[in-house]
Design brief:
Largest sheet: 5 strands, mixed
Shape: globular
Strand content: 15-25%
Number of helices: 12
Structural class: alpha/beta
Oligomer: single chain
Order of helices and strands: EEHHHHHHEEEEHEEHEHHHH
Number of domains: 3
CATH class of the largest domain: Alpha Beta
Radius of gyration: 20 Å
Distance between the termini: 42 Å
CATH topology of the largest domain: Trna Endonuclease, Chain: A, domain 1
CATH architecture of the largest domain: 3-Layer(aba) Sandwich
Strand order of the largest sheet: 3-4-5-7-9
Amino acid sequence: MQVNYVVNLRGEREFFSLAKVLRSALRAGAPKELAQRVALQIEKSIYPGIKTSEIFDKVNKLLKKEDKKSGLRFSLREVMRRLGPSGFPFENYIGDVFSAHRYEVFLNRKIKGKFAIHEIDFLARRDQIFYIGECKYRIFPGERIDLPIMLAFYAKFLDLKDGSYFNLPKNIELKPIMVTNAKFSSQAVRYANGMGIELLGWRYPLSGGLESMIEAEQLYPITILPSFKGYLIESCSKAKLMLAKDVLEDSPDKTAKIINIEKDKILPLISEAKTLLND
């Protein structure tokens, strides 16, 4: 029986795409031959109405079985959702991502606009661009950032822009940017493009989304390491230890002390980080 559709994360039917599976494996760094073999195995194992999440799990297991490194990288989108449940670790993580791309970053500020005081997730400056940034973290698969969220953010930006706090030189442009681990609705994208709001999300913009910024500098979240436990996220966030490569910066004893765990629990994380980051 020919399979012509799968069920995506939003519960919608879509045609099964062998090419999409292949591209996903290649993006994770799998060798071409392995990626092709995995894609063909997936095509043989699916059935009408299979969920894309099940396909993801199958690809992930097949990659990890033959190439642990690409298997870990393939899980990037899923492990981003392990940064919760609150949005604060995600904000700290995004701060690290922008800092690694040579931005000067300031997190969690309260700033007076023309008419109101606003909580700002982050400010980021590089060259002639000064961003006012809003982070929107999503836990559940298939969630989108929609138009009302974009409208509220732009209203905040306008009040801040008209206030006296940002007294920037004329050659510095103040710009709004919204960052998410999810996707944007079509209406949100249309409005943002019209109003000059920069968007950074999963596979958006097409020229290079959040995943591209992460992969370019190997800025994988610490949650990508299989031995990482969810209860550690708060202590890691407070310690600003949000990247997988952070566990390699200091001695195992010091890192364990920083996040308040036993040394024998940090050692598997170090081993996995070396596997992930080794070129």
